[in-house]
Amino acid sequence: MTDQRTKAAPHNQPGTPEERHARLAEAARQLRVEILRMTAQAGSGHPGGSLSSAEIIACLYFDVLRLDPARPSWPERDRFVLSKGHAAPVLYAALALRGFFPRELLATLRKTGSCLQGHPHMRTTPGVEVSTGSLGQGLSMACGLAAAARIDGAGWRTWCLLGDGETQEGQVWEAAEAAAHFRLDNLVALVDNNGLQIDGPVSQVMAVDQVPRWQSFGWRVLEADGHSIPDLLAAMQAALAGSGRPAVIVCRTTKGKGVSFMEGQADWHGKAPTPEQLARALEELGCSGQGPALPGGVSR
Amino acid sequence: MTDQRTKAAPHNQPGTPEERHARLAEAARQLRVEILRMTAQAGSGHPGGSLSSAEIIACLYFDVLRLDPARPSWPERDRFVLSKGHAAPVLYAALALRGFFPRELLATLRKTGSCLQGHPHMRTTPGVEVSTGSLGQGLSMACGLAAAARIDGAGWRTWCLLGDGETQEGQVWEAAEAAAHFRLDNLVALVDNNGLQIDGPVSQVMAVDQVPRWQSFGWRVLEADGHSIPDLLAAMQAALAGSGRPAVIVCRTTKGKGVSFMEGQADWHGKAPTPEQLARALEELGCSGQGPALPGGVSR
Amino acid sequence: MFRPGTGTAWGCVEMTRVDVARLPRQATRDAYGEALVAAGRADARVVALDADLSGSTKSQKFGALFPERFFNVGIAEQNMIGMAAGLAAAGKIPFASSFAIFVTGRAFEQVRQSVAYPGLPVRLVGSHSGVTVGQDGSSHQAIEDIALMRVLPHMTVLVPADGPSTRALVNESLSIEGPVYLRLGRPAVPVLYGEGGFAAPPFKAGGSVTLLAGRDATIVACGVMVAEAVTAAYRAEAIGLSVGVIDAYSVKPLDRDAVLAAARATGALVTAEEHSVIGGLGGAVAETVAEEYPVPVIRVGLLDRFGESGAPDELLKLCRLMADDILAAVRRAVAVKR
Amino acid sequence: MFRPGTGTAWGCVEMTRVDVARLPRQATRDAYGEALVAAGRADARVVALDADLSGSTKSQKFGALFPERFFNVGIAEQNMIGMAAGLAAAGKIPFASSFAIFVTGRAFEQVRQSVAYPGLPVRLVGSHSGVTVGQDGSSHQAIEDIALMRVLPHMTVLVPADGPSTRALVNESLSIEGPVYLRLGRPAVPVLYGEGGFAAPPFKAGGSVTLLAGRDATIVACGVMVAEAVTAAYRAEAIGLSVGVIDAYSVKPLDRDAVLAAARATGALVTAEEHSVIGGLGGAVAETVAEEYPVPVIRVGLLDRFGESGAPDELLKLCRLMADDILAAVRRAVAVKR
Ligand SMILES: Cc1ncc(C[n+]2csc(CCOP(=O)(O)OP(=O)(O)O)c2C)c(N)n1
Ligand SMILES: Cc1ncc(C[n+]2csc(CCOP(=O)(O)OP(=O)(O)O)c2C)c(N)n1
Ligand SMILES: [Mg+2]
Ligand SMILES: [Mg+2]
């Protein structure tokens, strides 16, 4: 991000790089806490792929994206598309902690009548840009958003997070092709390359080699440790360089990251922790099972 | 093909390589003649992409494929899938010249009640293996055929011809991914890389760089001059080497090949020649507009 | 000569017949091409997308005039719909066109999830619907697109019968909030509305046009079948039947009031559409009357079969989609009524 | 206690009530998993495909037992259908499973072109149909799959109400020539057929089961709604209405004779399905009676809305898919009849 861009970001905080990294690591930790509470409370949901995205989402929602929680439809805002819509908990947590809606609403996840649907829905949740949940459709919508910004000569960017299993959908590659062809360099894709999908390891179910794949579609490919804040921030900054090509950041991640008994377990893709499991998980994350992690979270 | 395979092919002819090449070049010429007559007679159809495939189809139907026109459903036959179904004329011409059905039927192309539908249909036309016409679906069916042969431990092969524009369909890449993952080395894809689709050059409408694309999906990629019989035969032989990976032959071709005023013209994708244009075209192909090109064609 | 277009003057005698066979002809896709350009001129939010069929769907001219607002995505209909959804989410009004079977079928779930569920104002434009596609055959002939789009919540389904109503509906669609499916055809069809034809009323979602009033039965038709329905109604007079005709261009929302009024007034309905008899306009009418005022509904359409190759006229005959087939259905409806 | 399953003994008085609430429960997808294994054992031509949901659709066990006949294609439903078509073209009998919305919607045009048009014997298996999917919400709840599959020529559409009928229909499907869509659900539902329930008749394409005979109205139901329909019929007695129930597990071909007989015998029909009221079983019944014997048909189903997140039971309530909603529809149907 250029200085001008980051300055405009309402959430941006002064401080040293180390302070910035610590702040984002703490945000990721809080996202994890909320993901676990939320899914435990709901009794269902997708912790595994939400946890693996925590640092990615923390960097985006607490640093990189230009957003104004008080004005969710501010025209100049950056757009984020959660193409892997089942990771709704991490998105909802970020939106709540950033103040798009009251944190208490997180407890209503997946309940009848809640504004927090099982998969993100733009009509019920402030801050959700498009509706996702059916895999493989988000990158196309992100292309459309980026194309709209291009038509309007607007400076906002579009970001899109995909699952690695999700990239088995042909539509992803139709979109990848189009983004390169239309030279949408105001678009950045991120792949949560956690190596697992529902039925097992991606390499066993239906292998996808992300880096050469995106390269062959004409994208600028960056790699990052998806749990390293400095790595992610550097890649995100590089992705915005704007070279006439869209950029993708392939993020090496661990599914279930942060909770020892969930890490690397396909089984934790789509089931909620029991109260006991929640307590253990929260302890590992350095907070008790009771009450809010930090009053108000890192929301500013 | 191994000796054993080619010997089993009912259509295989003894002779020197030169004789073999000349025979196939003549077959391609006759396919072109039939394509033009057929579409002119029908008053509609797709000459451009049929003409660009003439040598590919000649090599397959008059040399490489193990087929028995007298027994179209001989279980051990090789399977061919015309994924770019709009090139039905070149397939119908080959099937007729090989004796799957009487050559006279070609005159009924696209007419009400004809067994020769505008796009290939397995239920109406002897020798047509699956129904195509909606682009992007053939390679998946070819994967299914190859998987069936694998289950049965059968030796027959599956071949599939795609258009270059067609490869913009995401489903093609779902299939490509699956073929590599399932190690279907009894499957060979061919791309008629003629550089044109309906709305113009592929490079302008939606560029696809075939060779790196297929490589990134784990395929063995071969290239050939799609109008050179020796080149094609060599590539087809190499494709059958069977290395645990599916093979694709990217064929450099010219849309409308063989008819000067059709060559390289997107406009000739989907319209029939007038009687005058037919006469000119047939003259260029070394035969008069009247009567059959060669009685009985090269069918044996 | 202009004639009264709308109205429920049941039983009134028509003054002059509209000579359908002599009307000028225009393909609805051609009218669409013109209307799209006009919409693009009138509203800068209008953008267009196509999937390598812009010459056939007639979005090409828009592309030439407004290249920065036009996206040809190649042969990738799913991505086209997703991009249209993204453009709409950013405030644009996208018109996404391809052949009807590809825009509604190949991209069905994209239409459902990315467009219909959030209710985004994407205009899906399906040219080449029905068997009048002709020689290309079944793979290119949409016979189920109305059913597909009708079952989606939030979706408006419009099936204009001619050029003028197509232009009016494209314009009207600019002010419809949610998604719209516009079904178009390939061949030139009679220009029913205007000089020498019927008076053009305002065309709007949920509307219909009562072209002819009848006493014995009413034909509810859409698209190319409206002209056939008018012909059938005229022919019915010769066998002593007074038959009304409704142009139900808005298949969803269906003009319930008009359909129920016709059921009440004539006691027998026939539907006519270039679509399967399952789930389309016929389904909509059968569902509607069954709920409130059950009368016989005989559906003219493809009898649960795919199309095939052939000349459009021959296929209409083969598939029993001609005026005489409608007339046979009218007789059957009247017989069931008794 | 076993009870007479089929029959048209209109007006007969039932001996003993089936206590639906106390019946054992099993999810139809679980029954499918068992039946698939049995089919695989019985017939070597049976192969199975899935798209990264084999644990949920229950095809996993088949995969474990017959790995060489099982293809998990990853998250790529279109390719799954194409591969199934190819396997079928080579003489196999493929069962291709995923969530109902993905198998019928994401791959609609593949089903149409590669499977239905050539009439290949692919068995499409859609688990997780309707709102009883629950918390995942709208994107995972198929409410239009019956309409989508019903409009396709050559397609057989089967919607079993319980485990035993699911097993029977999987077995029966082996001898159906063309393509079949089998609609399954996620939650455990009452085992209606067998010990303590209704006698299980032979289940076959084009069949139906008349569970209860009535005089005033008949409920035609499928899937999870059959149990609700039975409950509704019992409750109807309390308000002096004699209501029949038909399990229309074969939505296409519909058991025309049974539906028309019910229309004639009771003069009023209610349909009940966990699906949009548009184009599904309700549409099929409305179309059928309108053609021959018009009677009121009140459709219970999703009222042209998408589902949402929530507990399955709460969603059934919210979407008005409970026995009492069916009962209200019965009263309305009877009122329209008069
Ligand atoms: C089109 C579609 N098919 C299937 C599913 C069911 N589904 C939900 S999540 C998932 C696996 C996703 O794996 P991946 O993309 O790797 O996500 P992550 O590991 O990040 O959770 C599947 C198959 C779906 N949501 N959409
Ligand atoms: C799914 C689908 N979308 C669109 C079409 C219409 N269409 C027929 S041919 C064609 C262009 C094909 O181009 P290419 O694959 O390059 O074929 P070739 O140049 O070999 O004729 C298109 C868009 C179709 N048949 N199927
Ligand atoms: Mg993953
Ligand atoms: Mg080409």
Features:
heterotetramer; A: 300 residues; alpha/beta; Rossmann fold; five-stranded parallel β-sheet; two-stranded antiparallel ribbon; 11 helices; globular; disordered N terminus; disordered C terminus; C: 338 residues; 2 domains; seven-stranded mixed β-sheet; five-stranded mixed β-sheet; 13 helices; binds thiamine diphosphate; binds magnesium ion
Topology:
The complex is a heterotetramer, with two copies of chain A (300 residues) and two copies of chain C (338 residues).
Chain A lengths: L2 H6 L8 H26 L4 H5 L2 H11 L14 E4 L5 H10 L40 H15 L5 E6 L6 H12 L5 E7 L2 E2 L2 E2 H5 L3 H7 L3 E6 L3 H11 L7 E6 L22 H10 L16
Parallel strand pairs in A: 1-2, 2-3, 3-7, 6-7
Antiparallel strand pairs in A: 4-5
Helix pairs in contact in A: 2-4, 2-5, 2-11, 4-5, 4-10, 6-7
Chain C lengths: L24 E3 H15 L3 E5 L3 H4 L2 H6 L4 E3 L4 H13 L3 E7 H7 L1 H9 L6 E5 L17 H6 L5 E3 L4 H11 L6 E4 L4 E3 L18 E4 L4 E5 L3 H14 L4 E5 L2 E3 L3 H11 L2 E8 L4 H12 L4 E6 L9 H7 L4 H15 L1
Parallel strand pairs in C: 2-3, 2-4, 4-5, 5-7, 6-7, 10-11, 10-13, 13-14
Antiparallel strand pairs in C: 1-8, 6-12, 9-11
Helix pairs in contact in C: 1-8, 4-6, 9-13, 10-11
Bound molecules: thiamine diphosphate (2 copies) and magnesium ion (2 copies).
